[in-house]
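Example record used in the benchmark description.
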Amino acid sequence: MYYVYILTNSGGRKYIGFSEDLRARFSAHQSRSVKTTKNADDMRLTFYSAFKNKAKALAFEKYLKQGSGFAFANKHLV
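Model output (structure tokens):
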């Protein structure tokens, strides 16, 4: 399985990511070993979606990181 996920910190900052092993990746975020979130406090998993197809998962992640996808995520997913 392939996962697209959204993490949110206590200040409302969001991080959108992709992983083949969601539990391991979330643990890496919590242990502050991921460069992009190492300075963020209290990252919580607020959304994830599982895909069987890697290309579809990566396309969804890319969409969420763009303008209309980011607005969609803010309104409907978190």
